[in-house]
Amino acid sequence: MSQQESALVLITMMMIAIMLSSSQALSIFIPSQQQRPPTVIPEPSSKPLLPVLLMHGVTVDNNSMTYLRDFILESNPGTIVLSLPCEDRLGSLFHPMAEQLELFAQLVEQAKAQYGFRDHHLICHSQGGLLCRSYLQMYPKHTVRVFVSLSGVQNGEFGIPGDKSWEIVLKDKFPFLWNMTADEIYAVFYTDAFQKLVSVANYWKDPYHMDSYRQHSQFLAIMNNDSTTVDYASKYHFRENMLRIDKMILNGSPQDEIIKPYFSAFFDYYKYDSSSNALVTESMKLQSFYINDVFGLKTLDREKRLFIQRVPNVTHKEWITNQTLYELYMRPFLY
Ligand SMILES: *[C@@H]1O[C@H](CO)[C@@H](O)[C@H](O)[C@H]1NC(C)=O
Ligand SMILES: *[C@@H]1O[C@H](CO)[C@@H](O)[C@H](O)[C@H]1NC(C)=O
Ligand SMILES: *[C@@H]1O[C@H](CO)[C@@H](O)[C@H](O)[C@H]1NC(C)=O
Ligand SMILES: *[C@@H]1O[C@H](CO)[C@@H](O)[C@H](O)[C@H]1NC(C)=O
Ligand SMILES: *[C@@H]1O[C@H](CO)[C@@H](O)[C@H](O)[C@H]1NC(C)=O
May I have one GO cellular component term (predicted)? Predict the structure, then answer.
C-alpha cells in the first residue's frame, strides 16, 4: 500500500469505529413493492413440480418473491413453493455472507424436514444468487436438482447501484461513503470491520485492487478460490458438491440497473488492462475458477448442464415480477 492509501485506511478505520460506537437505531429505506404487471395466463400443467425453494436479494424480505411463487403455482398447482425467510431487509445487508449462508442452510434443512421432501429446486435473486451458489459448493449433502440464478451477483460487484438498492441504506448508516467513488471504496470495504458487517463488502471485487481483494475478501475470494493463503476448493470439495446438481441456469440482462457489471451474473467480469489503462470484459471461460474447474462450472458447461440466458431489456426486479419471464426462462427447466 502507498502512504496515501495507508492514510486513507487509517482515517476510514477511525470513522468506522465512531460509527459503530453510536448506538443510534438504523433508519430504514425500503423500496416499495411494485404493482404486479399485466401478464399472460399460462396453461396449467396437471403435475406438481419438485418443491421449489426461493431466496430473495439484499434489502428486501422473503415476501419480495410472492409474485414468483404465485407464477409457479399457477403453472403447476400443488407444487410446494417456499420463499425462505433468511436475513431480511437490513439484516441481509448488515450481516456477513458467511453467517447468512449458515442460516440459509438451516432453513433449507427445516423446510425439508417440515414438508418431508428430499430433492428440490432453487431459484435465487441477486445477492441470493451468490448465496445459493455458495450453498451448492459448501454443503455436500444438498439435494438440489436445478439451480436458477436471477441476475445473481456471481462474480462480484464493482459499481454503485443508485438509490434503488443497498447504496442509500448503507450511506444512511455511513454518511462518509457519500462522497466516495467506486474506485475509492475498496479502502473501506476491504477492512476487517466492513467484511464482518456489510454483505456487499464480502463480494466487492475491485479490478484495480485484486491483491487487496484476494487478501481481504472474507467471502467471494473464498468461494472463487482466490484466497492467497488457503485452498478452500480442496478443503470443502467445491467441485464435487456442486456437481451433485443437475443443471445451472444463469439469467441476466444488459439493462440490469443494480448488478454492476451486469455480466457478473454470467461469471464474466472486469479485468484491468494496464496497456490501455482501462477495464475490459473478461469472459467466464477465461476466469481461473473456470479454467481450473474450481466449482464444477467447466464440467457443467461441457456436459451441457449450464444454461446462460442474456435477455435484453430486463430490469433487476422484473425477474421476480414478470410472469412472461418466468414462463420463458425458468419454467422450461423445472420438473
Ligand atoms: C415481461 O417480459 C416480457 C418478455 O421480456 C416483455 O415483453 C414484457 O413487456 C414484460 N412485461 C412488463 C409488464 O414489463
Ligand atoms: C415468508 O416467510 C414467512 C415465515 O417466516 C411465511 O409465513 C411467508 O409465507 C413467506 N413468504 C412467502 C412468499 O413464501
Ligand atoms: C460531500 O461533498 C459535498 C460537496 O463537496 C459536501 O457539501 C457534502 O457535505 C459532502 N457530504 C459528506 C457526507 O461528506
Ligand atoms: C485453489 O487455490 C489454491 C491456492 O492458490 C491452489 O493451490 C489450488 O490449486 C486451487 N484449487 C483449484 C481446484 O484450482
Ligand atoms: C428495448 O427497449 C427499448 C425501449 O423500450 C426498445 O427500443 C428496444 O427495441 C428494446 N430492445 C429489445 C432487444 O427488445
Answer: lysosome
